[in-house]
Amino acid sequence: MTQTAVKVRGLAKRYGEVRAVDGIDLEIGTGEVFAILGPNGAGKSTTVEILEGYRQRDAGEVSVLGTDPGHPTRLWRSRVGIVLQTANDTAELTVRETIRHFAGYYPQARDPDALIEKVGLTDKADKRIRQLSGGQRRRVDVALGVVGNPEVLFLDEPTTGFDPEARRRFWVLIQDLAQEGTTIVLTTHYLDEAEALADRVAVITKGRVVAEGPPATLGGRAVAKAQVSWLEEGERKQLQTGTPTRTVVELTRRFDGEVPELTVTRPSLEDIYLDLIGSSSTEPDDHSPAASRSRDPR
Ligand SMILES: Nc1ncnc2c1ncn2[C@@H]1O[C@H](COP(=O)(O)OP(=O)(O)OP(=O)(O)O)[C@@H](O)[C@H]1O
């Protein structure tokens, strides 16, 4: 890791009796894409909202770009990008008007039309926000999160409601931003998204980090046993093995060539994730604190 963009030590936050965040440590390097995974109610949004400066913590140390988000300055805010839940305060403005309007708040804003193109809304640029579909509005939200050219970008479930093509387009946008050196912190329930985008992931359950690492090696994934499966005398056979190549060689000899319906698989990120969270998922309350946040970036 080069420089540290986000540092969290012993972070804690309670809501009454609920320990939403219960001693989280994180360190995210400049330019890293970091995904926070976890079941509903695990404490992801609370953590991200504290990092964004939208929620006060009870305990712990937090630094984002060297500043405590509990005491944000105006300059710090202009260096941090946040994708808020869809708000309706610009519903009567067009996509272009909205993005131009918010670009005006930032010293080093992106070119609004280039950004509209990047999020795939060029043909909707002159439509009013209220005329857009849910997924299209979400793309406007993402555009507003990056319009200020932030050094750190926080994305809380950014692609919920996107169609598959919009998700892929969003991934390309995130990869572009990462290439430009933007540090990106995202929460997601899509494990393929974490796998495609993240350099490292942290899995949170009940307000604690239970595993952390690159998606390819998380929770011992890289050294987990492979499953070899084939068809023999009309029956599906399966074998868990740490040496799948040797097994395949033996099978090839035995069958004297092609092994019927041979597959070799290793645990997916989803398998590992489900193992990690076990039965510890907590039920969500049906409130959405983020929905009431203001979009004004000042
Ligand atoms: N404003 C609040 N008041 C009271 N309890 C809250 C509040 N916000 C969150 N909680 C509780 O804190 C816990 C963590 O919630 P949080 O929204 O951080 O989880 P999450 O991991 O983001 O969940 P999800 O995946 O469902 O968005 C949950 O038990 C939730 O019910």
Automatic annotation (TrEMBL):
Q: Does the keyword NAD apply?
A: no
On whether Nucleotide-binding is a keyword of this UniProt record, the answer is: yes
Keywords in alphabetical order, please.
Antibiotic resistance, ATP-binding, Nucleotide-binding, Transport
Q: Name one GO molecular function term.
A: ATP binding
Compositional bias per record (Basic and acidic residues), positions renumbered to this chain = 284-298
Family annotation (Gene3D superfamilies): P-loop containing nucleotide triphosphate hydrolases
Which residue ranges does the record annotate as region Disordered? 277-298
Q: Show the InterPro entries listed in the entry.
A: AAA+_ATPase, ABC_transporter-like_ATP-bd, ABC_transporter-like_CS, ABC_transporter_ATP-binding, P-loop_NTPase
List the subcellular locations.
Cell membrane
State the SMART domains in the record. AAA (SM00382)
Stretches assigned to the ABC transporter domain: 6-231
- State the protein's name: ABC transporter ATP-binding protein
Native organism is Sphaerisporangium flaviroseum
